[in-house]
TrEMBL record:
Keywords: Cell membrane, Cell shape, Cell wall biogenesis/degradation, Membrane, Peptidoglycan synthesis, Transmembrane, Transmembrane helix. Gene3D superfamilies: DD-peptidase/beta-lactamase superfamily, Penicillin-binding protein 2a (Domain 2). It is a single-pass membrane protein. GO terms for molecular function: penicillin binding; peptidoglycan L,D-transpeptidase activity. The lineage of its organism: Bacteria, Bacillati, Bacillota, Clostridia, Eubacteriales. This is Penicillin-binding protein.
Length: 953
């Protein structure tokens, strides 16, 4: 039938395939047109950007020279192994690093380790931040944890839904961060860096591992790797992370590798994606093995993370750059630092250079030329160490000291300056250090780091207690602070990074007597030829000093000023202090007579002036103060609170015994109790503050203090319980006794403040007189040259890399003091007798046979005055040995000052001065005194070879 439906045709499958393929190719073509035509510029830029890298080239730091052109600090080119993170290198990271570590180990080269999270010999993590200050350690630990994102986890717990955090909130986060142990931080970083990838997991395994804790991942890894191996990979991962803050740059795997090792790596680079070898400058100290002038030169190290922002603003790369950390390296950082260069390159997928696009040459830093003479410096350092060893091992004086042998003479300093310019010829701080330890990777071992920055006060204290039979506990010698960290309260531990020459403030002892001589002679209270009888006890002014009669070691008989200096007669100088006090009015203003002369000589400054005290030295210094009324009063007011608390907490003061007061501040005190304790202390200091004469006005004080004692009894359960216990033992509590004891305390303190007792003590260099060794050298220099005080300086000039002089430092006068010629001559003659006296002279034994006439003054300065039966030796301390000198006497050219902590006696440092003189005058001695036999075999013919630019290899 025609109307029957026609059978449908079946669709051809081939046609369908053609249509689908056409659609796919059309889409691909459209996409290609879009990418290559419409988005050509965008993607070209992206491709160029992703393949471009800036390879920085470190600029060498400027060099540091001594005055003779010898290199004290320079740079040497070293091979450095780096890793660049790319997509390709990331995929094979662990296999590549495995090869790298094996090659380093096989060739005995060390991986660079700047991670502050270390492992001890038992494999336990601990923090090591290379700083000694507890506050600095705290800040660095917080920064370390924040940089690695740990604060985000803490924030989620403490402030989950809070968007804007206050400073208080951030502080709470910091407190919580500090509670996270080093071990838990290690676990965190294992997870943070996805270190389960070390196991080459599948995708499914990865998802499983992501849900594990850091400890669980670590435990899993420890089945296949050691804890040290895990940390080796972590070092590189962490370096990459920290480097990322500064943009894309290679990270250092190992620095200063051997040349042979570098060539082996060159041959294998094709099999190590991301790894490369380059040459970089490394700071080098040619005389580092001798610790030569380490306190002056300083050292370089990486930038602390807490200072990151500050240095980034100044153009530093905080992840790779080093900065001066001490001494000249730090003080002249802006001069020594060079300008980093770099090359913009194109790289392939493995991070290797394919094309160089732009090159910027690095610019070296400028050079610093010091006034230090390396030969004089060496003589000073070696002789000081020898004398310290001598006192430690050879001195045995049981009649003078409870510690009669093996003194803790482990700290000392020496300074030599030109008398007529202030140029420093040598400056020693002992102990010193090899600065190469910090610039050469691998040299700062965990053991050295702990010794330098985290000393074991516990073990050291036990050693001292046993050695000297101190009868003290470690807690007494090295008390713990509120954070549980031990403090070196009595300055017992030798500190390599503490410059004892510029920072250590010491009592000058009898080396202060030339200054008193200037003051007494210029005030006219004595003539150079006037004599008096030098008794042992100074008991000639009971109308002024009452029953107090300070004692000398000997009775010297008839002395004039010259002999008083030669034999160091205390009686003479006690008398000079009283005479100046009487001449100037016998009042509080008269107590400043000594200060007015001392300030002109650079020994402190007038507290009523705005003048900042300084010797002018370019590196960090502490500047000490001479006794004067305002300063001594302020010191007494400050420390009297602590002395009051210590005495009255024990229930004993003077002849009074009473129920111990609960007067020390405690964290758990109620607000009322805190206020009461403070009010008692304030009541006492208010009386002292308002008193300006020997008599004390106590109008209304007794009533006030009784009321406060009643409040103390009411508010303090401890005090009320003590009173009850005392009453129950038939030793009735007497408030009147406590009041009398407090009033006696006030009378004693007021007497010390408003009478010349401390002036008398200051006249022999004791009491509050404390100065740096540089100050002592400067003041002796001022006297030696006739009264001109020069700025003490270490730097002669600055030059650029071509040798062109950029800046010169000429002698600079800071002040002048007028000294009559006859007075100056008498002082110089007396100081000459110290070194050259035929029978007397406290340092004469050390200058026998020396052909050039020298002058000097010894000082045996007490660390802590004996109180009752408590001696300085009970705390492991003994007298400072202080010695000052100049030469020649008739035309002073050089001044020397020496100190040894716990050094027995002042003359112990005199041989150090002689070693310096033998070196300084060696050409003159060889020419004029050819038969002279030196005391030291390293002075006339200095053993250190010169290291110049042209012979450094």
């Amino acid at each position: 039938m025609n109307n029957m439906k026609k059978k449908k045709k079946s669709v051809n499958r081939y046609t369908v395939v053609i249509i689908v393929m056409f659609i796919i190719f059309a889409a691909i073509t459209a996409r290609l047109i879009y990418l290559q035509i419409f988005k050509y510029d965008d993607y070209t830029e992206k491709a160029n950007t992703s393949s471009r890298r800036l390879v920085t080239e470190k600029a060498p730091r400027g060099k540091i020279y001594d005055s003779q052109g010898n290199l004290l600090a320079t740079n040497k080119q070293v091979y450095t192994l780096t890793f660049t993170q790319t997509d390709t290198s990331s995929k094979s990271f662990y296999s590549t690093m495995k090869q790298v570590f094996k090659l380093l180990d096989d060739n005995k080269d060390s991986q660079q380790d700047t991670l502050n999270l270390k492992l001890d010999d038992k494999g336990e993590p601990y923090f090591d931040f290379n700083v000694s200050s507890d506050d600095s350690k705290r800040a660095l630990e917080i920064r370390f944890k924040r940089d690695r994102g740990m604060h985000d986890d803490v924030k989620k717990v403490l402030f989950k839904d809070k968007q804007e955090l206050t400073d208080g909130d951030e502080s709470k986060i910091d407190d919580e961060l500090l509670k996270i142990s080093a071990k838990d931080t290690f676990y965190y970083m294992v997870k943070f860096y996805s270190m389960y990838d070390m196991l080459n997991p599948t995708s499914a395994e990865k998802e499983k591992y992501k849900k594990l804790s850091g400890k669980e991942i670590t435990d899993m890894l420890l089945k296949h790797y050691s804890i040290n191996d895990i940390r080796r990979y972590m070092l590189v991962k962490d370096a990459i992370k920290m480097q990322s803050f500064s943009g894309f740059k290679p990270v250092t795997i190992a620095a200063n590798i051997k040349k042979d090792t570098a060539f082996i790596f060159y041959q294998k680079l094709n099999n190590m994606p991301g790894v490369d070898v380059s040459l970089e400058p490394m700071r080098y100290y040619p005389y580092g093995q001798y610790n030569l002038a380490s306190g002056v030169i300083g050292y370089v190290a990486s930038i602390d993370s807490t200072k990151k922002d500050r240095y980034e603003e100044r153009g530093y790369d905080v992840s790779t750059d080093v900065i001066g950390k001490a001494g000249v390296e730090s003080a002249f950082e802006s001069i020594l630092r060079g300008s980093t260069g770099g090359t913009t390159i194109k790289v392939d997928s493995q991070g290797r250079k394919t094309e160089e696009l732009f090159d910027l040459e690095p610019s070296p830093g400028e050079n610093v030329h010091l006034s230090i003479d390396k030969n004089i410096q060496y003589a000073a350092e070696k002789s000081l160490q020898e004398r310290m060893n001598y006192v430690q091992t050879q001195i045995n004086d049981p009649q003078m000291y409870k510690i009669s042998k093996n003194f803790n003479t482990t700290r000392g300093a020496a300074v030599a300056i030109e008398a007529k310019t202030g140029r420093v010829l040598a400056m020693v701080s002992n102990p010193g250090y090899d600065a190469n330890i910090f610039s050469e990777p691998g040299k700062l071992t965990p053991e050295l780091s702990k010794q330098f920055f985290a000393p074991d006060y516990e073990s050291f204290g036990k050693m001292l207690i046993a050695k000297y039979n101190l009868g003290k506990t470690v807690d007494e010698l090295f008390p713990k602070d509120s954070n549980g960290n031990r403090q070196d309260k009595y300055d017992l531990y030798p500190k390599p990074f503490y410059n004892y020459a510029t920072m250590g403030l010491i009592p000058p002892g009898s080396t202060f007597k030339p200054l008193i001589s200037v003051a007494a002679l210029e005030e006219g209270v004595v003539h150079p030829n006037d004599t008096l009888y030098g008794k042992k006890y100074f008991d000639t002014h009971p109308d002024i000093l009452g029953s107090w009669a300070p004692a000398d070691e000997h009775e010297y008989g008839i002395v004039d000023l010259k002999r008083a200096l030669a034999v160091s007669c205390n009686f003479y100088y006690y008398e000079m202090a009283i005479r100046m006090y009487q001449k100037n009015g016998s009042n509080t203003a008269a107590l400043d007579t000594l200060g007015r002369y001392a300030w002109q000589l650079g020994m402190g400054t007038d507290p009523n002036s705005k003048q900042k005290g300084s010797t002018g030295i370019e590196i960090g210094e502490n500047f000490g103060q001479t006794y004067n009324y305002e300063y001594f009063k302020s010191q007494n007011l400050y420390y009297s609170k602590y002395e009051f608390v210590e005495a009255f907490s024990k229930g004993s003061y003077g002849s009074y015994n009473f129920v111990p007061l609960d007067i020390a501040a405690k964290d758990d005190d109620s607000d009322k109790l805190k206020a009461t304790k403070q009010a008692i202390k304030d009541a006492i200091t208010d009386v002292l503050k308002n008193s300006t004469s020997r008599s004390v006005k106590l109008d209304g004080f007794e009533t006030k203090i009784k009321g406060l004692l009643n409040d103390l009894e009411s508010n303090s359960k401890d005090f009320s319980d003590r009173i009850k216990a005392s009453n129950n033992s038939n030793n009735k509590y007497s408030q009147k006794t406590v009041v009398n004891a407090i009033e006696q305390f006030i009378f004693d303190k007021n007497g010390a403040i408003n009478t010349p007792a401390e002036l008398v003590n200051a006249a022999i260099g004791q009491g509050v007189n404390n100065f740096s060794l540089v100050q002592l050298a400067s003041y002796i220099s001022t006297i030696a040259n006739g009264g001109t005080r020069y700025k003490v300086h270490l730097v002669d000039e600055i030059t650029d890399s071509t040798g062109k002089v950029m800046k010169q430092y000429k002698p600079e006068v800071l002040g002048k003091i007028s000294i009559k010629p006859e007075n100056l001559a008498a002082i110089k003659e007396g100081m000459s007798m110290v070194n050259n006296g035929t029978e007397e002279g406290t340092a004469r034994a050390h200058f026998v046979g020396f052909p050039i006439k020298t002058a000097g003054k010894t000082g045996t300065a007490t660390y802590k005055e004996t109180v009752g039966n408590v001696h300085q030796e009970d705390y492991g301390r003994s007298d400072y040995s202080v010695y000052v000198s100049f030469a020649p006497v008739d035309d002073p050219q050089i001044v020397v000052a020496v100190v040894m902590y716990d050094g027995y006696q002042g003359n112990m440092g005199a041989p150090v001065a002689r070693a310096i003189y033998e070196t300084y005058f060696r050409d003159q001695i060889k020419q004029q005194y050819p038969n002279y036999q030196p005391m030291f075999d390293y002075t006339l013919n200095p053993p250190l070879e010169d290291v110049k630019d042209d012979n450094l290899k």
